[in-house]
Amino acid sequence: MLLEFFHYLQSTQLAIGLRQSDYAFPLIEGSHIMALSLSVGLILLFDLRLLRLAFQGDPVSRIMHQVMKWALPGFLVMFVTGLILFFAQAETVAKNRYFQVKMLLLVLLGINALVYQLKFYPRMADWDTGSAIPTGARVIAAVSLMFWIAVIACGRIMAYEL
Ligand code: HEM
């Protein structure tokens, strides 16, 4: 049922035009890659801070606020360009194992970030005044680091297979 719908999407004139375009598709894919640095790249910096592997002297809350200012628009670009790349070849991409794993990882990363937001973010200011970063927050940072690297690996491998 879903695959039939994706087959319909992929056979639309707009999708065919996008797939065969000399500039539009490469520009969108290039933006998908470029926005990595503004989104995942910044989140990894924050994870390194939580893991006390970088920026130890800087308050956690300041790093988070500076990072999120750019990471949120960066993720918006990642998702919009990703959806357009998907639309252009929906059926082929949906059948791709690496794409399926990538989407699962994105859902798990969303849950991971939500747990951080609900459980640890409210007490973040305490860490700025020297109390230790809770183990749970560091586990969330470690999971984030590993899963984002896996998402990028899946994206890169699937791009080869398509
Ligand atoms: C923040 C989340 C995301 C990250 C970090 C990410 C990362 C990547 C990377 C590294 C590539 C390989 C690009 C290349 O080297 O050619 C890629 C390709 C791709 N991504 Fe994403 N992506 C994200 C979200 C999405 C979403 C939400 C979708 C669609 C629903 C999507 C659909 C695609 C498609 C279809 C390709 C293959 C393009 C092609 O070569 O034909 N991505 N992604």
Question: Which structural traits does this protein have?
Answer:
binds protoporphyrin IX containing FE; 9 helices; 83% helix; elongated; 162 residues; mainly alpha; single chain
Plain-language structure description:
By secondary structure, the chain is mostly helical. The chain has one domain (2-161). The chain is 83% helix and 0% strand. Helix 3 runs antiparallel to helix 5 (60-88) and helix 4 packs antiparallel against helix 9. The longest helix has 29 residues, at 60-88. The protein is elongated, with a radius of gyration of 18 Å. It starts with a helix and ends with a helix. Protoporphyrin IX containing FE (HEM) is lined by residues 29, 32-33, 36, 39-40, 75, 78-79, 82-83, 85-86, 93, 106, 151-152, 155-156, 158-159, 162.
Quick description:
The protein has 162 residues and is mostly helical. It has helices spanning 2-11, 13-20, 24-38, 40-50, 60-88, 90-94, 97-120, 124-128, 135-161. It has one domain.
Give a topology summary.
Elements (H helix, E strand, L loop, with lengths): L1 H10 L1 H8 L3 H15 L1 H11 L9 H29 L1 H5 L2 H24 L3 H5 L6 H27 L1
Bound molecules: protoporphyrin IX containing FE.
Protoporphyrin IX containing FE binds next to helix 3, helix 5 and helix 9.
First and last CA, distance: 22 Å
Helical percentage: over 70%
What's the SSE pattern?
HHHHHHHHH
Number of helices: 9
Specify the overall morphology.
Answer: elongated
Largest sheet: none
